[in-house]
Design brief:
The chain is mainly alpha-helical. The chain is built from eleven helices and four strands. It has two domains: about 190 residues, no CATH class; about 80 residues. It has a two-stranded antiparallel ribbon with strand order 1-2. Helix 2 packs antiparallel against helix 3, helix 2 runs antiparallel to helix 7 and helix 3 crosses helix 5.
Length: about 290
Amino acid sequence: MAKKKRAPTPNEHQQNASPPNPSPPPNPSGRPIATDDIADRVMALARHLGEVVGTVGAIFALACIEKDKRLCDVKPALWIMLDGWLHPAQALWNEKAERYLTREEPVYLDGGRLPPTETGRFGTPSYCQLAMELGELTSKAGLLSGQPGQASNWTMAKGFADELRRYTGAENDNDAVAAIHALIPEIQCEARRGIDRWRAETEAAAVAEQWIPVAEAERLTEINRGTLSRAAKQGKIKTNGQTGRKLQLDLADVKRFSLQAKARRNERENREVLSQYRKDDQKRLFGGANR
């Protein structure tokens, strides 16, 4: 009879857990993240940074307890998890994401608990960047603590905990853990706000310059597509630079061209009506004189 395997303890299970796969990073839509798809990129970034912050909080909490250990010896599995979430977040961070996430005023890890004049405050232009730099700082401290000849205040668990607690401006370890974890909802709100900003700009740009097929332009203006195509070739209507079936016209230019065409048609019709009226009037005058 085969010997029954012993179930792993919670600690063994956590230590043996596989780190998150950093490539490709997951995203809420399940689609590959396009370079210009800010919504998917920012949502994936916020998710990874939330996990980074949670892992840093766990490392800090254990460092407060296991003060005499080297920092890298504090729950080794957590360091694997930290890098597993941090590296994809670094790959997702780019100038476009930074543009829509940057705030008017900087934000700080102390959350306003330290006075503005305090030197050495840990602050960045956005909560997402704050979480990123917090993860990078923690990862670097853990890496250095495992290298010989790199002894410093940051490489021991106690020194790391003391420095990070000072950055949070908290009076005790529990408040410091809470201050670190408070970044997670701020990151999520900031990501949604950044996506709203991107969508507002995208919609405004679409209204300002919206491309439509020639057939759609013909339906809207009641001008035959041959005339529209000729106007496009003559530069009277802006195009997308394509030809044939791929040719599209700028909606604003199409409306302007249509209004101009209607104005010319109305003017021509008015001249014809006036000319006909004058002819009829002359016939009445000369006709009466002949009688």
